[in-house]
Amino acid sequence: MKIAVCIKRVPDTELRFAIAADGKSLDPAGLKYDLSDFDGYAIEVGLRMIEQAKTGEVVIIALGPDAVQETIRKSFSMGAERGVHLRADTIPSDGLLIARALAAELKDGGYDLILFGRMATDSAAGIVGPMTAQLMGLPCVTAISQLAIADGRGTARRELEGVAEVVTFPLPAVLTIDEGIARARLPSLKGIMAAKKKTIESKPVELGEPHLTVERMELPAERSGGRIVGEGPDAVPELVRLLKTEAKVI
Amino acid sequence: MGNTFAFAESRGGALRTVAFEAVTAARRAAEVSGGGEVHALVVGAPGIAGQAEQLARHGADLITVVEHAGLERYNPESVAATVAARIGAGAYRAAFFAASAQGRDLAPRVAAALGKSLASDVVAFELQGETFIVRHPVYAGKAMVTLRLTGSPALISLRPGAVAAAEARGGGRVEQAQPALDPSAAKVVVTELLDRGGAKLDLGEAPVIVSGGRGLRAAEHFALVEALAAAFGNAAVGATRAVTDDGWRPATDQIGQTGRVVSPDLYVAVGISGAVQHLAGMRTAKTIVAINKDKDAPIFKIADYGIVGDLFEIVPRLTEEIRKAKAGA
Ligand SMILES: Cc1cc2nc3c(=O)[nH]c(=O)nc-3n(C[C@H](O)[C@H](O)[C@H](O)COP(=O)(O)OP(=O)(O)OC[C@H]3O[C@@H](n4cnc5c(N)ncnc54)[C@H](O)[C@@H]3O)c2cc1C
Ligand SMILES: Nc1ncnc2c1ncn2[C@@H]1O[C@H](COP(=O)(O)O)[C@@H](O)[C@H]1O
What we know:
The structure holds two protein chains of two kinds.
Chain A: E1 2-6, E2 9-11, E3 33-35, H1 37-53, E4 57-64, H2 68-78, E5 82-87, H3 95-106, E6 113-117, H4 128-136, E7 140-150, E8 153-159, E9 163-170, E10 173-177, H5 189-195, E11 200-204, E12 212-218, E13 227-231, H6 236-245
Parallel strand pairs in A: 1-4, 1-6, 4-5, 5-11, 6-10, 7-10
Antiparallel strand pairs in A: 2-3, 7-8, 8-9
Helix pairs in contact in A: 2-5, 3-4
Chain B: E1 4-7, E2 10-11, E3 14-15, H1 17-32, E4 38-44, H2 52-57, E5 62-67, H3 76-90, E6 94-98, H4 101-114, E7 118-122, E8 124-128, E9 131-138, E10 143-149, E11 154-158, E12 173-177, E13 189-195, E14 208-212, H5 222-232, E15 235-239, H6 241-245, E16 266-270, H7 276-282, E17 287-292, H8 299-302, E18 305-308, H9 311-328
Parallel strand pairs in B: 1-4, 1-6, 4-5, 5-12, 6-11, 7-11, 14-15, 14-16, 16-17, 17-18
Antiparallel strand pairs in B: 2-3, 8-9, 9-10
The structure holds flavin-adenine dinucleotide (FAD) and adenosine monophosphate.
Flavin-adenine dinucleotide binds at residues 213-215, 240-243, 254-259, 271-273, 275, 277-278, 281, 292-294, 297, 310-312 of chain B.
């Protein structure tokens, strides 16, 4: 079993954000970067598949500046075997350009499964996975919350609004991973040691002209809330009055 | 100045609200770009043609109906091929999809098939000359980007509810078409549709959400949350990841960065601390109420109204008062 996991290095959203002087990006001061949440789940799914199959490897693919190598190393310490760094000065906001570069890299890799996060926590787009699948002509199931593979076929579950779909597909296939399958394991000490010996192949990519570019970035207006109506059950009538007359939601 | 396109999403033989939102957006885009027709496409099992009139009422001038027994359930490959072929042949200025579960699956496939860029999960758009300017929340809702989308057609998926569906009489011509890919030739097959039952109102559509956190202490105490939701009558029940992790509620109820993102009129947070990952899923609610025994809990920083105290005393009282208010209304 040969599994590729495409990962993105993103700013940690728990930290306080400020907008940079260009008005189009985050102020890098004080930012920390990490693996995008769902990509961590995707690595976990890949590792479990390999453990189950008892043979094969998880290959990590990340497009971006040199700093993405740090994120690839983190995946190594979780258990991934190899990494491919597609070198670009910045990560474009046009997902199609990323998908094209990934598709070109993955095309001749002989992968049985290609895994993505349901969406990246920075772009919150959820498009690079299915675009890559389409460009490669591979079957694709998005936002899956359960997965079973047997005899070259997969069965997955997708959550829609109010209902769930059960989907079957042949391998090789592209899957994007949602919440619910697997939490990312923590790097083990042994894994961290082993990661140092694993190799990252770095190659430049040509991205082409973007058709989706950032004009402006803003912080959302702070909610001006923060009003404590009162303490304990005696505050309830006042709350209900406010909901009725002020917020007008009941 | 060029026509616009809308994909009209359906499920189980009926159009979904997001279909009318997409048509409304396409109508608006046609108007600001100096006129042009709105073309909608709907796919489904035989009989789906009966839905065309509703699209005309929301402004569709031409409705392409693709009926096929193999399209009773969503068939990603066949539908993507069909939509891509239609858009490719239409020389459209813009094409709109819903950023719903189905639309998020479909739109990127269509975009890649056409070799066009896609602006995903858009909450507002405008036209500057030939260029679409769109807004989209990023970094788990902690920032908003304004993006410039060039090229024709501009492909846009709209966050459900971002554009309110509005009626406007369209020409309403109906044409039948065949799927561009035989559904039975598709490799990915939806074999079952599971009704999760329970919640009648989807989290994405409910005007009121009552959400519970670890403060409830045990699965059975969610009865309190459900009773409050029932008192509202138009409420769905949500939860934090702490709760879904412990199996008190299904993972599908989770709201937040790695769960559902919701914007109800009213969000009631019961025994929820207000971690950033949770706030990412509900900070755009119009009104937020928090009930928490810790007056320093971060949830109070974004709540419009807070009550400090024991939820086990406050929630039953609130349920009673809401019931009264609803009965009197
Ligand atoms: C990668 C990642 C992704 C995540 N994604 C999500 C996500 O999508 N959604 C999400 O929700 N979380 C997510 N989390 C988890 C998040 O960080 C928090 O751990 C979680 O939201 C906390 O849930 P909680 O508020 O129920 O529990 P707690 O933080 O334990 O809060 C319980 C609250 O209940 C109050 N309380 C206790 N007893 C009472 C009482 N009797 N009366 C009134 N109040 C009481 C306490 O004061 C406290 O504030 C994610 C975390 C990570 C690392
Ligand atoms: N620069 C990148 N390098 C590798 N994989 C990426 C990159 N950007 C996005 N992806 C993958 O595509 C998924 C969806 O990203 P997005 O469409 O931006 O939400 C991510 O979860 C990753 O799995």
